[in-house]
Structure formats: C-alpha cells, structure tokens
Amino acid sequence: MTRAIRIHAQGGPEALRFEAVEVGAPGPGEVRLRHTAIGLNFIDVYHRSGLYPPPQPLPFVPGSEGVGIVEAVGEGIADIKVGDRVGYAGPTGAYSEERIITAERLVPVPDGIDDAIAASVLLKGLTARYLLRQTYVVTPQTVLLFHAAAGGVGSIACQWAAALGATVIGTAGSAQKAARAHTLGCDHVINYREEDFVQRVTDITDGAKCDVVYDSVGKDTFIGSLDCLKPRGMLVSFGNSSGAVPPFEMNLLQRKGSLYATRPTLGHYVAKRSELLDAAADLFEMILSGKVRIDAPERFPLADAAKAQTALETRRTQGSVVLIPHH
Fold it and tell me: Which key words tag this protein in UniProt (predicted)?
C-alpha cells in the first residue's frame, strides 16, 4: 500500500487528504514511478479550489510535476528501463508516493541536476521555454514585460530572456522581490504596488512600449498589459493568479493598436514526444550551462501539502516549492 493526497470535493486547503491508495502494475506503454520529489504549482491550487474543473473524476490526486525512479515497466517501452531517473510535467496525479504514468510523457533527468531542482523546474521551465522560443520568438531586438518576474516561471524566463539578449522589464510586488528580479537579469524592475506599471513602461521605453507582455496575473493586470504594448504587439496571458481575465470585446484589441492576444498552455507545445524531449533537453542545457540558475526549492513533506499550498496562495513563498515523499 502506498499513500497519496486526494481531493474528494473541491474547496480550501482542508480538501487535501493524505490517504492510502492502490497503485497496481503498469499496463502496456506505462511505468510505475516512485516519486523522490514533486513540484508545487498554482494550477494545483486552481484544481483544488474549483477555479479550474477537476482534471479527473473525483476523488483525484492533484499535482502535475514530479521526478522519481522507475520501479516497473509495462510492455512495449523501448527507451525507459527500471532504475532510470525521470521527470514529467503535465499528467495529474503527482501528489503521491508512487503512481502509474504513461511512459511517453517522461523525460530523462541528466546527471548534475538533482531531483528537487528537476521537480521544481520542469513545468515552469518548459513553460518559460515555449513562451520565449515559440509563442513569441524573443530576439536581441525584443523589448518585453514579464509580470511576477521573481515568481516561479518569471525567475526562469527572465534569466532565459536576458541570455537571449532581450531588453527585460519585470514587475514585482515588493522591494525584496524587485531586488531579486534585478539579480535574475531584468534590465528594469517596477514595483507595481508603489508605481503605475503602464506609466513606468512608457517612460522606460521613451513611449515606444513593448513587443510582448507575458502576464500570469490575469484580472488585475489585463487592461494595463494591453496598454504596455506597441501597435501589433502581443499579449501572452498564461495564468490568473489574481482571478480570470473578464470577458472583453474583440474590438478592444483593434482600438489599442491591432494587438494580438493569446492564451497558450504547455500541453499544446509538447503534444508530440519529440517536442517534449527537445524542450526538456533545451531547458536542462540552459541550467547545466549556468545561463539559468535555479535556487534550491523550499521543501515540505508530502503529508503537509495543505500547508505548502497555503504558503503559495498567501505569497509567502519565493521561488519554487517541492513536496518530498517519505517512503
């Protein structure tokens, strides 16, 4: 018998229950994975609270990122064997000591990157990669605004964008987080609690504004983000930590400068195994080269997932958080 966090009804942190579960043997194309570290992400909170519908029928095991050791391999798998150290980002069910998972969603974790780092970085790092390399292709000529620059995705993306030679403007919600954003490669940092970020972006760019704005905040920043874009600029909305973006008239994009707006998600960028392996290899190379530095994540025992989610929701975390199973 193994244990997992399960949600029987969506709600507050008390909805997270640590209980015994049956895992069983892997079927064709599947492996049984023993987790060594599990990533914590805002989407886990959305799945728990009800902002997003349950990813699976209730009761379900939340979490969409983990690293572990392959314990058993089903039929028809050529490139993964028992004992391999692998990670994944995407399939829910991560808040567990062990799980069954489709082998084609697993990526090898290279030597030189430890389990907690890998578990803290896969979802956020693969997200940063598609945002900067695919949704909008960032070059040395790009001027960009990244909200929550000191947050999970932001702390990776700002370093990566700086390595690509872009002009990086970040926002942060405190003096401490603003100072951190500077160390992450932001050329300019705006404390949005003390400054009007639209006015500051206008000043910083001498009125030219940005080619692209990356916004995971949502409701509170949506209109301001549009106002930071130059004509034909792109708003990339990839989260809603302040609540969902309200409905808006499409004509708004025309009035504000023939703007583009997109709402991407990782799954559509790594749908094929070849895309996933390429993206993960690119991410790990950025880390191993030192161009993207990953701080050691904050750790909570898996049994304390409710405390960990509460810390995330109340902005008491800085950088990443992982859950550690005690086998």
Answer: NADP, Oxidoreductase
Closest to 154 (Cα-Cα) out of 65, 214, 114:
214
| % the chain with pLDDT above 70 | 99
Q: What tens digit of pLDDT does each residue of 83-140 get?
A: 999 999 988 999 999 999 999 999 999 999 999 999 999 999 999 999 999 999 999 9
Q: Are 210 and 175 spatial neighbours (Cβ–Cβ below 8 Å)?
A: no
Beta carbons of 178 and 172 less than 8 angstroms apart:
yes
Assess contact for 236 and 137: CB atoms under 8 A. no
Ordered alpha helix ranges (H), the chain: 42-49, 115-130, 152-163, 175-183, 197-204, 222-227, 251-255, 273-288, 305-313
- For the chain, which domains are there? 2-122+273-324 (3.90.180.10), 140-264 (3.40.50.720)
Q: Please say if the pLDDT value at position 327 is more than 70.
A: no
Rounded distance, CA 240 to CA 214, Å? Answer: 12
CA distance 67 to 119: 5
- DSSP summary character for residue 93: -
Which of 44, 41, 237 has its CA nearest to residue 152?
41
